[in-house]
Amino acid sequence: QVQFVESGGGLVQPGGSLRLSCTASPGVVGMYAMAWFRQKPGNERELVARISGTDEHYPFYMDFVNGRFTISKDNDGLYLQMDRVEPEDTAVYYCNRLPPYPTWGQGTQVTVSS
């Protein structure tokens, strides 16, 4: 069974930065397209960014990212560099393959507040 472990979340002030990390069962991150998702209280889980499974690692970002986040991956994991965070970025962040496996990790809580 594939497992995902997210980390790096926390409390950050508006305008600050965080770096989220995701590890997965061996071979998953390197072989497949991967993505970061987030879920706000009372809302459905939504896509934040994705990165291709090819060597070129093409990224894609949802419009609300607006140039503030950077998704990357290597053989060890998947990452999301979050800069200039906003209160609206407050959510639990998850990683998964694309298309998503049915099992999800615990996620990592990001809270943006002054």
TL;DR of this structure?
With 114 residues, the protein is mainly beta.
Q: Would you give an account of this structure?
A:
With 114 residues, the protein is mainly beta. The protein is 4% helix and 45% strand. It contains one helix and ten strands. It has one helix spanning 28-31, and strands spanning 4-7, 10-12, 18-24, 34-39, 46-51, 59-61, 69-73, 78-82, 91-97, 108-112. The longest helix has 4 residues, at 28-31. It is globular, with a radius of gyration of 13 Å. The mean pLDDT is 94.
Contiguous low-pLDDT stretches (5 residues minimum) are: none
Number of strands: 10
What would you report as the Rg, rounded to the nearest angstrom?
A: 13 Å
Helix and strand succession?
EEEHEEEEEEE
Instruction: Work out the helicity level.
Output: under 10%
Mean pLDDT comes to: 94
Global morphology: globular
Oligomeric state as shown: single chain
From the N-terminal CA to the C-terminal CA, the straight-line distance is 40 Å
Structural class comes to: mainly beta
- Count of DSSP helices? 1
Widest beta sheet: strand line-up: 2-10-9-4-5-6
- Largest sheet geometry: 6 strands, mixed
In terms of DSSP E residues, the strand content is: 35-45%
